[in-house]
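> call design_seq(struct)
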């Protein structure tokens, strides 16, 4: 069906992502409590996308395995302890931030086991929500494509 009468760009509409932007790798967690709720954190004032709700996590340092980066970020951001073996890969999202001149690749992991009570350590609000409510939150464009996948998994 990919012939002169059916060009491929009509089958999958939208512009291709820009190339040549630096890639920023991040690891994020869908922390799931015993009631099936997911923890989201609000981006603090003064940061890119301030006020939006996101999955907690952060940048992966060069040479750092994603799981260890996420364990480190959860300790720094939420004061909780978990282990790489408690993280289950869920999926990933890819999004170009033209205005910030980078392309984000976010690896999402589900986590059901940790020690401590998650509390924002950098002034960010946190809350537990049911998966359907995630669709109604103002979330960054990189988080949003993962909601359907997360709903199917939980």
């Amino acid at each position: 069906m990919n012939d002169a009468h059916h060009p491929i760009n009509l089958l999958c509409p939208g512009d291709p992502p820009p190339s040549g932007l630096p890639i920023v790798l991040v690891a994020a967690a869908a922390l799931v409590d015993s009631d099936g709720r997911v923890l989201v954190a609000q981006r603090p004032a003064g940061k890119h996308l301030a006020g939006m709700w996101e999955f907690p996590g952060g940048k992966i340092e060069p040479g750092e395995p994603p799981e260890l980066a996420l364990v480190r970020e959860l300790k720094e951001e939420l004061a909780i302890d978990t282990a790489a073996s408690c993280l289950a890969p869920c999926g990933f999202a890819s999004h170009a931030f033209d205005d910030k001149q980078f392309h984000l690749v976010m690896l999402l992991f589900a986590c059901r086991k940790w020690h401590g009570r998650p509390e924002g350590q950098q002034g960010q609000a946190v809350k537990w929500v049911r998966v359907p409510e995630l669709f109604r939150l103002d979330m960054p464009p990189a988080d949003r494509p993962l909601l359907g996948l997360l709903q199917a998994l939980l």
